[in-house]
Amino acid sequence: MMHFAESFDEAGHEAHEPHIRMQQQIESAFADHRYRSVGEGSTGHVRIISKKDSGGETPWVVKTRIAEPPSHATTKRTFKTEWQMHQQAYTLITDAAEKAPGQFTRIPKPIGTLESATSHQSILEYIEGETLFERALRFLLLRYAASEEDEQNIATGNREELVNLAVSENYIDIFSSETQNDIRFALRQPSRTIPALTEEHFEEIVAAGGKRNNEIPLLSHKQHRQLERTIALLHANTISHADFHPSNIMMQKDGTMVIIDFGLSRKVTTSTHKTCREDLEYLQTYKKLSL
Predict the structure, then answer these.
(1) Which is it for the CA torsion 86, 92, 95, 100, positive or negative?
(2) Which of 125, 146, 170 is the last residue of a domain?
């Protein structure tokens, strides 16, 4: 069983008994395969464990970075930067939202970190909902649904299921010839190593699927303003998200917007200010599709 040498609580202070309990809960869930994988790779993985296994108020997202020598020091610095950025953003936006309810998006609550000689783990609140990318793809497929069975599958499908349906022969003709070529090239790769549809296709997906499904908008003006205020406040406090694509914006059933994944987030300096421009460019894209 892995021994974790260091852990920090939400305030960044070294923790003892709570982190030992957290370590045991995660190790137990992983050992018994009581988790849902949302990303596995040679450098780490992202897994979700249930509220029952977390013992907390919500399920947990456990992000693990594997740090084999000689990259250990670099991985540790990257891990701590991500954690610090997420903590700072969470505190900043949560405090602002308390003073001005309904004016900002949410950011998942940081729970804690665990570290060992070969890996680093960050534990975050799990957000239930769909990403803006999934929502746009769902709207597209519902618009062109070929059967009632497809409609049911579209309504309940996750990202992988939606993408698989969208690139099937029943729906691939919806896309431009260039995108169809990209899709067919991706499908020919062994083990599907290249995604068939990505965030790069987002605007085409929206253009084909429309900005609303019946009376439900893909993104409302109010939601866009919440995103705008949140990014503006982060930038004013020298934090750039730097990966503000539509798969890092979650939409909960009640309409609450949540910005996730601060893995590329950085303090804004003269050398990193370009990341702020990238955040703003995405905001302009979202403004064009809001209703």
Answers:
(1) negative
(2) 125
Q: Does residue 105 share a domain with residue 10?
A: yes
Q: What is the C-alpha to C-alpha distance for residues 183 and 180, in angstroms, rounded to an integer?
A: 5
pLDDT tens figures, 173-230: 999 999 999 999 999 988 777 788 999 999 999 999 999 998 899 999 999 999 999 9
List the domain range (segments joined by +) for residue 84.
Answer: 6-125
13 lies in the same domain as 57: yes
Beta strands in the chain (DSSP E): 6-8, 36-41, 44-49, 60-66, 110-115, 119-125, 130-131, 212-213, 216-217, 239-240, 249-251, 257-259, 266-267
Q: Give residue 133's Cα distance to chain centre.
A: 10
Count of the separate structural domains present in the chain: 3
Query: In which residue are the tokens 């993408």 written?
Result: 163
Hey, CA dihedral for 60, 228, 226, 98, is it positive or negative? positive
How far is Cα 204 from Cα 273, in angstroms, rounded to an integer? Answer: 28
d(CA 130, CA 141): 15
Determine, yes or no, domain membership for 118. yes
Q: Are residues 117 and 173 in the same domain?
A: no
Sign of the alpha-carbon torsion through 264, 267, 268, 272: negative
Tens of pLDDT, residue by residue over 217-228, are: 999 999 999 999
Is 93:102 a contact under the CB 8 Å cutoff?
no
Pairing assessment for the beta strands 212-213 and 60-66 based on DSSP bridges? unpaired
